[in-house]
């Protein structure tokens, strides 16, 4: 007797869909397990310090609440926001996740560009610092007034000194006292004086309310502001030297006024 058997042949597309469905189910299960597994929570935070001013204890206290958080769900802003609250001069934060339980951080701070000496509002004499102990008043590249101990900043011997005066309210540490545009103009003026005139700046004074700066070269104070380009003010200086010579002024040369130069 001949027996016939019926075979059920599934279409190729159905087989593929079934395979994808199984893979999807396995993937969802794996992700769900990972999300709820204590294996992927933060148990260790490693900090790469790029600057001696970075305080490890301060960093750990700022982000201590991150311990136990799920590494998969942690974002860079979750780390950066609390750090910026306690480190005002924080420049960049690089966050790397090292699975299963380690968070790796690299922090950089705003560069220090000068030591700062705060004078009385009339520029007469330095004022006594508010901060107790041996600290240094410093100026960052963003124009922030910083306060650090010598151990944190190193010797600082190579840093230039900037005097700050003409203030309404005394500058407070960790606040922006001048903007980057102002600092760029002052640096440009100092660089061009050396390049074009062969003159080295011996003294730098910032007038906060007037938003001007004075640079002393060869015992003569050159007065600049940021209302006109530095190049334009130096062109007035060149015209003054060509017309009257360097010995014409004994105290100062005011380069701020368009169309003329005032000197004494």
Provide tags for this entry:
264 residues, alpha/beta, Ubiquitin-like (UB roll), three-stranded mixed sheet
Description of the molecule:
The protein has three domains: 71 residues, Roll (Ubiquitin-like (UB roll)); 54 residues, no CATH class; 84 residues, no CATH class. Strands 6-5-4-7-8-9-10-11-12 form a nine-stranded mixed sheet. It has a three-stranded mixed sheet with strand order 1-3-2, with helices on one face. 30% of the residues lie in helices and 25% in strands. About 3% of the residues have low confidence. The protein contains six helices and twelve strands. It is α/β, with parallel strands linked by helices and 264 residues long. The radius of gyration is 31 Å and the shape is elongated.
Q: What's this model, at a glance?
A:
The chain has 264 residues and is α/β, with parallel strands linked by helices. It is built from six helices and twelve strands.
